[in-house]
Amino acid sequence: MKALIDKLAREHILTRNELVMLIKNRNPDLDSYLFEQAVAVRRRIYGNDIYIRGLIEFTNYCKNDCLYCGIRRSNKGAARYRLTDEEILNCCKTGYEMGFRTFVLQGGDDAYYNDERICALIRTIKNRYPACALTLSIGEKSYSSCRAYFNAGADRYLLRHETADDIHYKKLHQDEMLLSARKQCLYNLKAIGFQVGCGFMVGSPFQTASHLAEDLLFIKDFEPEMVGIGPFIPHHDTPFAREPAGTLEMTLFMLALIRLLLPGVLLPSTTALGTIDPAGRELGILAGANVIMPNLSPPEVREKYLLYDNKSCQGEEAAEGLEDLKKSMDKIGCRIVVDRGDYIDGS
Fold first, then answer.
1. Residue 297 is part of which domain span?
2. Does 232 map to a domain?
């Protein structure tokens, strides 16, 4: 198995069968070896720098009914909210003063925020903070909408593909959602000029090693600038409430594989990792991640943006815990930097 990791570190590609074999045979010894290789690659390109993104969860309304998501439209128990433009801009002001140079506007696919509203918000943020990057994570949109956001000044767009297998995708989403449409949106975003991020859940219901290998091959072929993955964590008000969560170990393993597949990728150690393990965020960095996304949202709404149960939104997961986060990164030989944190081609 270590020979396959050496091949991946050298050539940045494996066959589907080789990836399946690695995934099926992962073990603590193999983990350690893989993490060493992944961290070495990350350090070669980014040094010990860790980039921070200020996450602003501005709406939890969503038109979609994804079976795994706590803010799905069928969840009548969700406490819905929308931030005003003033509240969003206050989040940016607070974040900028803390040292954030990337803001991430994340929300459900909310029709209230039409193109006109989103573009006006983008222009205002970019005019006030021209040195900052602005990332959107607002769901699957048309080509014309994405083009409008880019022309207004947005820099990056995150859109998880969730799974690269069509049959698996249908098991996780309502009938009107299609993997082909999701992928087309990703290709549109890249063609328009965004720095693009895709990603998937690790351990989602019905997922197999073959599905994970397919995800990795799709990511390699697509070559995004960012990849966001995290463990599946069930939400009590969804059809998957009783499904087992994804594991820390497999999520870390997949992070490291992605680092070797795409050496320069911007790779977050996600809130979900910190939710399933108190040291999850640090362990993600030690597996090859180089991005952390503390929460800049107003404290009173953070627990309402509940995609999964027991979401961690305090302490180092929150922007106000940034000093503690800096200390925890120092302890593992890394440093939080004040920087936009743009993609570096590591090929």
1. 2-333
2. yes
Q: Give the separation between CA 117 and CA 186, rounded to whole angstroms.
A: 22
- pLDDT score of 318: 63
pLDDT tens digits along 44-89:
999 999 999 999 999 999 999 999 999 999 999 999 999 999 999 9
**CA 77, chain centre distance (Å):** 25
pLDDT tens string 151-182: 999 999 999 999 999 999 999 999 999 999 99
Residue 341 maps to a domain: no
Helices (H) then strands (E): counts for the chain: 14, 11
User: pLDDT tens digits, residue range 245-273?
Assistant: 999 999 999 999 999 999 999 999 998 99
Closest CA to 295 of 272, 319, 274: 319
Q: Which residues pair with 133 in a beta bridge?
A: 102
- Can you spell out the DSSP letters for 273-340? HHHH-TTHHHHHHTTT--EE--B-S-HHHHTTS-SSTT---SGGGBGGGHHHHHHHHHHTT-EEE-S-
Would residue 280 count as lying in a domain?
yes
Q: Which residues make Cβ contacts (< 8 Å) with residue 171, sequence separation at least 6?
A: 67, 205, 206
The CATH number given to whatever domain includes residue 310 is 3.20.20.70
CA max distance for the chain: 54
Rounded Cα distance, 164 and 168, in Å? 8
Q: Is residue 305 in a domain? A: yes
Contacts of 48 (CB under 8 A, 6+ apart): 333, 334, 335
Instruction: Tell me, rounded to whole angstroms, the distance of Cα 66 from its chain centroid.
Output: 17
Query: Strand locations in the chain, DSSP E?
Result: 49-52, 54-59, 102-107, 133-137, 156-158, 195-198, 201-202, 226-227, 230-231, 291-292, 335-337
pLDDT in tens, 80-104: 999 999 999 999 999 999 999 999 9
Q: Can you read off the two tokens belonging to residue 196? A: 């693009």
Q: How many domains does the chain have?
A: 1
